[in-house]
Amino acid sequence: MDKTLNSKTKTLLSIACIAAFLVFVYIGDNTIPPGSSWKMMITVIEKGSIFALVAASMNLLNGFTGLFSLGQAGFMLIGAYTYAIFTIPGKSHDAVYQYFDGGLIKWSIVEILEGKLGVLGHYIGMFIPMIGAGLIVALIAFLIGIPVLRLKSDYLAIATLGFAEILRAFFQWNTLGPITNGSNVLRKYTTYGNAIFPVIIAGICIAIIMLLINSTYGRAFRAIRDDEIAAEAMGVNLFKHKEMSFVISSFFAGISGALLAMFQTTINATPFNTVMTYEILLIVVIGGIGSITGSIIGAFLFTAASEWWLRGLDAGRWLGISSSLMRPGFRKVVFAVLIMLIVLFYAQGIMGSREFSWDRFIAWWKNLPSNLKSWPERHKAKATARKEARATKAAAKAKAKAAKEEGEAKKASGEKLFTPLPTSNEVMVFGKEGK
Amino acid sequence: MGFLHTWLPYILAGIAVGGQYALIAIGYTMVYGILRLINFAHGDVFMWSGLIMVYLITVLPLWVSVILVILFAIILGTTIEKVAYRPLRTAPRMSIMISAIGVSYLLQNFALYITGGLTKTYPTIAWLQKTVTIGTATTKMVTVITPILTIVLVALLVLLIQKTKIGMAMRAVSRDFETSSLMGIDINRVITVTFVIGCGLAAIGSVLYFSNYTGIQPMSGAMPGLKAFVAAVFGGIGSVPGAVVGAFVIGVAENLIKGAGWTTFSDAFTFVLLIVILMVKPTGLFGEKNIDKV
């Protein structure tokens, strides 16, 4: 691949793209009227960036450290609750915690700081519980990690899945009601005003994850993924690095949980179940295990498809086709089939284990017309190759069948199938020939 | 006597639920023993057989529908194996696991579509609902039938594994996949038989399990599935008697916790048990020692 741009231009281009995107989101959220179908796009961007963050954090664990963990939904749950509990305004407590005498915590960090610092205090008051959510999740992950990370692949998956379920039960426990509101929803907590907020926060967090992956720690993580024993021999402390990856991944899952709480405006522990973890995992798979940019693209595609593009499948009319098959729930079926197809036939995902680069993008763009033109030929070549492979396989099968029949016939006629091996010294099993 | 009087109903219910978990757990343990794959879709096959029963019973007599449900589960299970697991047999283990998760997601969403998200009422099977009195406790027939049926089926299965040719092939494949294929064992056939047995038993389990509950919905299979998997791990994954013992332990413990008024934590207990067993004895109660080859 030839270098097309120098690195300074590439950095400028990236910054320009990000700035343009942010401006677009900010203006879009302010100007598009709520009833418009394009409003959906802003919702997709909000939710997509939140899921991009949690997918990137899961990718750090599953794709870069090789730890198959399925606890992400549980960590998001803690993050969401921590944020919500500390930002419900004092006067709303009686309404929210109506079954628990107004709850235990009667203040909100946002309100306290707003009273002292004004608008600045409002934002600081939102950041502190958000970072706090991440830190609490990280602490819990640290404790969970000590026993769990000693387990191997699928046992680790089940144990983390189990912990996520335990956390969910814990948050719905009535005795903790004065804090978590039991199995009732938490609402009326402080949320963000513009869609640009989750995009910026998720962007900063993903940038930090990227920096981490390209650091020496990131290289140690990848060494563990590729070969634990070799990594240990090279002086990588296995447990320390696994624990580190687990804690950092959980920290960002906690932050994305807090963002999700803000996005939804009400939260409840029930939807943070295994299905949610599966969805995050499928985002990672669609984008490519081991590619952060892949996870971002995957998250936006996943949210756009499930929330926006395929909506018509539920309503009975989609792309001008209407059918009685299309009733509520059909969208999810089509979607699940698409995901299965990706998993089976396109296992490396959109980006594989590569990251986005301007060089590759420009090369791809330049070659696109010729690639499109040669597509029928390549397709034909592939089809012939497949046909040939099938023919060879059939021939081999026929040959095996004939040999078997011959053997059966010989057996029936009483002939010995195996001639005893000669016992002379000339038979060499693993030696050199032509001595 | 007072102690037994209070706790007997819970213990009986626990044994019944344990038997139902055992029937699901066998599918997990056998598939894991042979393919080294957690078949995440197994719980959803279980849920689907319950759902099919709801639809079949409206037009067919009971015994026909039970047989058809078992057949359906077997066909569904083997199809999943052929379509989703077989093409990935040489792929890394993580991809097969992801494929299993994808199948589970698909089955749940398809059930959501078919049922329209509504809870379907499971048919009442009069014979299973008959009241029986054991000692001081009054319970339903299904509570008595389940453990007996479970034990009989498991005994038959153990006989099959120990005495028949296909059982021998299964043991060989679970010991060493590649060597047994070199020895002329038709691996695909062995795996298909494994799925047939696992899904058939799960279908029988579903008839017993859901007759204890009024309704069935798309997520009904997830929790029993996970619990049955934990049971399989507890007993030592790959071991059939181990899975059964594990299932009974989980069933009884869960109902005792419910009896003590800790219903919120009855599900969580299962996972605590899983984590404890993985910490203390990762090979489970009856599991074979696994030597990591370098």
Explain how this protein is built.
The complex is a heterodimer of chains A (435) and B (294). Chain A is built from 17 helices and 4 strands. With 435 residues, chain A is mainly α. Chain A folds into 2 domains: 20-356, ABC transporter involved in vitamin B12 uptake, BtuC, CATH 1.10.3470; 359-404. In chain A, the strands form 2 sheets. Chain A has a two-stranded antiparallel ribbon with strand order 1-2. A two-stranded antiparallel ribbon of chain A has the order 3-4. The two termini of chain A are 50 Å apart. Chain B is mainly alpha-helical. Chain B has one domain (2-19, 26-219). Chain B contains 12 helices and 4 strands. Chain B has a two-stranded antiparallel ribbon with strand order 1-4. Chain B has a two-stranded antiparallel ribbon with strand order 2-3. In chain B, strand 2 (131-134) and strand 3 (137-140) form a beta hairpin. The model of chain B has no long low-confidence stretch (mean pLDDT 85). The chains are: A mainly alpha (435), B mainly alpha (294). Chains A and B meet through helix 7, helix 13 and helix 16 of A and helix 4, helix 10 and helix 12 of B.
Helix content of chain A: 55-70%
Tell me which protein chains meet in the greatest interface and how many residues each side has.
A-B, 46 and 46 residues
Strand content of chain B: under 5%
The count of domains of chain B is: 1
* Average pLDDT reading of chain B: 85
Tell me, what's the shape of chain A?
globular
Main pleated sheet of chain B: 2 strands, antiparallel
- What is the overall pLDDT average of chain A? 82
Oligomer designation: heterodimer
Main sheet characteristics of chain A: 2 strands, antiparallel
Q: Unreliable segments of chain B (pLDDT under 50, ≥5 consecutive)? A: none
Residue ranges of chain A: pLDDT <50 for 5 or more in a row? 431-435
Overall spatial form of chain B: globular
Portion in beta strands of chain A: under 5%
Decide which structural class fits the backbone of chain B. mainly alpha
